[in-house]
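Please check this chain.
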Amino acid sequence: KLPASGKLDDKTYRTLAEEAYRKQAPAGVQGRDVVAAAAALKGVRYRYGGTAPDKGFDCSGYVSYVFAKYKVALPRTADRQYEQGLFVLRQALRAGDLVFFTTGEPGPSHVGIYAANGAFWHASSSRGVMLSRLDDVYWKSRYIGARRLLLE
């Protein structure tokens, strides 16, 4: 349904990328359901290397745990999770997208789940699972990108 122009413009690229990804994306999973599952873990303590609510989460363990509830397997670390899904512009974020930050070494070292209206759920090393804002001074300067795993 794309007009033949002979050029790979943004709309054509996005459409082709989404169609290719649609063939492997999880079917029937809604972003709002993922966000609700993420929010249900509010207050779970932080634990480096943590992957379960009873023992605590680190950021990527938290994200992996939430998505596993919907049979979406993710790599264990934030930098490897950054390689999954489709690239998403910040202004096009939707509920359930993964948002990434650089907090230590260059590159993705922290990940969260976009909720809506500029907010995201993540496992904070200081406060455990919590809701933060992309425009908070700390996160705004460390944001490096987003990925979409769910195509609704």
Q: What stands out?
A: Residues 23 and 133 are 32 Å apart (CA to CA). The chain has a mean pLDDT of 91. The beta strands are 51-52, 56-57, 86-88, 98-101, 110-116, 119-124, 128-133, 143-148. The radius of gyration is 16 Å.
